[in-house]
Amino acid sequence: MTMTSHQTTFDHEFAGSGQPVGYLLMRLHRALRAMMDDTLRPHGFTTPQVAVMFALGRKSGLSTADLARLAFVTPQAMGEVLAGLEAKGFVIRRHHDSHGRIQPAELTATGMEARNLCHDVLERAERHMLSDLSTDERRMLGSTLERCLEGLDDPADAAVRDSSTRLRARPLKVQAES
After folding, report:
1. Separation between Cα atoms, residue 136 and residue 142, nearest integer Å
2. Across the strands, what pairs with 107?
3. At CA 108, angle to CA 107 and CA 110, rounded to 5?
4. Do the Cβ atoms of 93 and 63 come closer than 8 Å?
């Protein structure tokens, strides 16, 4: 029996390090998330808690389901996150006027102070991550990542993708209240 080597050829090369961009993004996400967790832990916060405080700082009255999507956790896990924030006095939930089970969440004044503290802590961590990039490179990175996100949501590609493969935990676009 004769063995033949089979070499797969690709129609493109991976830029930079030769690794797929998606793989590099996953590695970056894991490293950034670990840094965020390590940076927030001494202050008594988790990344999902901070995601909730940031979201509620932009738009008050979001539901548990909305917040779960924004924080990339399940609604059940978000219930626990909100309970922890309520116990600390950072969030209050009220019963919805017309929907008995929905409890819109709001930041308290103490919650807004905690959100500001977390913002400052995470801003320092992000500056550290981007410290080797010039101002122009930072701007370009941000706009390039935005374009990549837009490319994933391109309606022209919808026929190519099965709807079940689309991102299930896509964050909501939350506009600041006017």
Report:
1. 10
2. 91
3. 115
4. no
Domain boundaries along the sequence of the chain: 32-151
Per-residue pLDDT tens over the stretch 117-161:
999 999 999 999 999 999 999 999 999 999 988 988 856 555 444
- The rounded distance, in Å, linking the Cα atoms of 161 and 177 is 34
The CATH class given to the 32-151 domain equals mainly alpha
Other Cβ atoms less than 10 A from the Cβ of 93: the count is 17
Could you give the C-alpha distances from 173 to 7, 59, 69, 70, 170, in angstroms and in order? 44, 11, 11, 9, 9
Residue 67 to residue 169: CA distance in whole angstroms: 11
In angstroms, the CA 56 to CA 47 distance is: 14
Q: Please classify residue 31 by burial: count the beta carbons closer than 10 Å to its beta carbon, then call 0-12 exposed, 13-18 middle and 19+ buried.
A: exposed
107 φ, ψ (degrees, to nearest 5): -80, 140
The pLDDT assigned to 89 comes to: 96
Average pLDDT over residues 107-125: 95
* 3-49 pLDDT tens trace: 555 555 555 566 667 888 889 999 999 999 999 999 999 999 999 99
